[in-house]
Design brief:
heterodimer, A: mainly alpha, globular, B: alpha/beta, Rossmann fold, Alpha-Beta Plaits, 2 domains, 6-stranded mixed beta sheet, 4-stranded antiparallel beta sheet, about 35% strand
Chain lengths: ~260, ~325
Amino acid sequence: MNVLTRRVASSTLVISRGWLLELRQLMRSRLYLVTAVILPLVFASLAHYMFAGSHRTEGPLVIALSAGLMGMWSTTLMGSGSAINRLRFMQVLEPLVACPTSTFLFSVPFALATASMGIYSLGATLVWSTLFFGMPVELASPLLFAVALLVTVVSLALLGLLLASAFILYPTAQSLANFFEYPIWMLSGVLVPVSSLPEPVRYLADVLAPSWGVKAIMRSATGEGGTLPAVLACSLLSVLYALITLILLRRFEWLARSSGTLALQ
Amino acid sequence: MSDYAIELDNLSRVFRAGQGKTKRAVDQLSLRIERGEMFGLLGPNGAGKTSTVKILMTVLLPTSGHARILGDDVVAQVERVRRRTGVILGGDAGLYARLSARDNLLLFADLYGIPYREQKRRIGELLDMVGLLKSERTRVEAFSRGMKQRLHIARGLLHDPEVVILDEPSNGIDPVGARELRELVRGTVRDGRTVLMTTHYMFEADELCDRVAVMRGGRKIAEGTPESLKKQTDGQVVLSLDIIGVGEPDLDRLRLLPGVGSLSVAEVDGSQRLDLHCDQQTDVTAAVMAELRHLNVLRVSKREPTLEDAYISLVSGGDDA
């Protein structure tokens, strides 16, 4: 095995175990669990009631998926952002940075863990919608739906991490998480169709991996064509996010060491 | 290869303190610590010990000067420094509270690149060494402070580092736990490692360290063996008074008395213990009692200075080294 292969293999193992341990941590936080369990159900109920009272023609499946994806993004963004501050508050951030591996390797697992909780968010929304709002559970292509969902979860995790990378440097950057919640909902097309947004904004939606993930999920669920290109676009943009995050984390770590903001102030 | 395990050359760290002001946490600090040595860094809060430790553990950049561990620069050769240095931070925090002791170690074993096949054996050995094998599956949030500190030690030694940095390891731990911890620390040096330890406790430094340096206001004000530091108080005697109601104006008057070097006050069982470090040649008892005649003095005694007194004498006023 050459050096590169060994590095990739060991990094994958580090990320996998980190992801499992982070999930274990999250599952033991009652506050987080209550939020993660209830929020998607609230979103789902609100969405169904709002659409019932409007003239829009989307089917119940699209409504449920949109509500579920809103929950996924909220969980991921809040989770990734608060994870870094939680590490700082627990005074674990400094020992983690003092490890010889890249900051990226200990950051990806908690972003993935929070995004994984987002899968629950989507699942709970679909079950809730079926039980209480008479939504038929019919996925046109269950396999493609699963692939699209997986790729979207990873894209959300990486976008969350990209935005949260600034939290390494600025302990107060948590407030930015709230700022990014609504724009991503809008640009991903879960609140309103992207086609209804002004033209320049639509280009912005095209560089957001979750927008393509949402398209892939919707298309695989409803049977429209073009799922695989959307999956591919989502994957490529996610790789790009990972590379940018890698560079940003390295830079922010240096700046945080320079300004002394890794410690709890 | 460098002859020294740790070298600091004119190391300084300045923080912004708001409103355009700055605070010099570490000021032109130079030190040489030999391989296999147990070195103590002493000083009151704000002396710059923790900033020095953070620079050495590569989580804080120096403003100027150089720090090297085993010849590697802590700024330019970060990864090499991190692989060869173990950091043991004191206190309640710094661990994943909702994970078990074993999970905490597994997470860090991955990040230190310890091969999977070795992890189980290494973690088992370390948990056994720090006496946590029976509690390995217990969540850290249920641990006592002493148990957490022992887990910190296990984590710091996971990757078998050549240099270990301990930041106030026995701070806030009961006397029995602190004694056990000191045994553990002594064990790490016996394994041939170099240890740099910061501490508030003089007896701890006296018991463990080959050499110590005392810091005040970011600067090194003394360096040597514990014995040589004690010698700085040769020719001195400590006049100790248990007293009620002593205030800052009283202390100011006492400081001006001929023969009084420095003084310290501590709360002891509802009264104040006032220690005056005095010149052995001058009996200041009568003059002190006259200055304090309006107060209730419960007890007066004289004793020989200890390392604690030498330290207090240094950090409360002596000349800079």
